[in-house]
Amino acid sequence: MIEPRVDVTARLAADGYEIDQWGGATPPQILESEIRP
Question: Record's superkingdom (predicted)?
Answer without folding.
Answer: Bacteria
